[in-house]
Amino acid sequence: MDKEQKSCGSCGESDCSAKKQAPDESTQDFLDRQALHRRMCQVQHKILVLSGKGGVGKSTVAVNMAMSLAMAGKKVGLLDVDVHGPSIPKLLGLEDYRPAIVDESITPILFDNKIKVMSLGFFLPKKDDAVIWRGPLKMSLIKQFLRDVEWGKLDYLVIDSPPGTGDEPLSVAQLVGDASGAVIVTTPQDLAIADVRRSVTFCRQVGVRVLGVIENMSGFVCPTCGTRFDIFKSGGGERMAREMGVPFLGRIPLDPGVVTTSDSGEPFCRKFAGTETAVAFAEAIKPILSLSAEKEAAVRLT
Q: For the region Disordered, what residue ranges are annotated (predicted)?
């Protein structure tokens, strides 16, 4: 095989890394890398959704971000790489769905004719099955989801990662290579904020741009009397973002409707569009929507 000439055929860029086999790379690894690159070349923006700790509503935010992007007219994919706690199927009411495999490609589940969805949860025989895997198996699965799922042409692929800075987010950052950035979800209290700082540091160490911080569960307004209660405090995410020098994308209120719609498998921002919480999600994705304009401007300058 001619290492200089063989191309994956996915683009015309002369400096594309997938055109050449690395000196220490086996032929099979090279072909796998080309296949992954060919698939990911069709996705304009890959967005990681991270959190420093569990329990901050990261997956709920990822679902509503993806839905908000779809409602803005974008072609969207949602990939759940939380191997040990895949919750996207439950949040979208897709627990009983099973992907088809056609011509060695995995067909993603289509939600609401708008969002292409993939998760390990679709492949578990039982909902309560535990996945006990070490790092290499996790990386292999994530690679397969990026390489073998028929994502097609997407404007955005939202990747819901498990809490922390372990194998899964690291594998995604390494495999995707050109992620457009990460959105970090936190709650306002000090314990969550301390862990988010580590997520920001993680992004900087692996070369992923921090698109911003979302402060979830930020204040509760009593539906009866209208009084606001800062159950988990408020403003901690914004202060941390300012101190760390990263953008702040906004506050998502603590809304009982989010719990209800999540349990029923329906994105809140679709069912209750126009409410304060849905508007907060729409505002939070504005910098993400502007990525397309940034990319177009960069292309014009080259």
A: 1-28
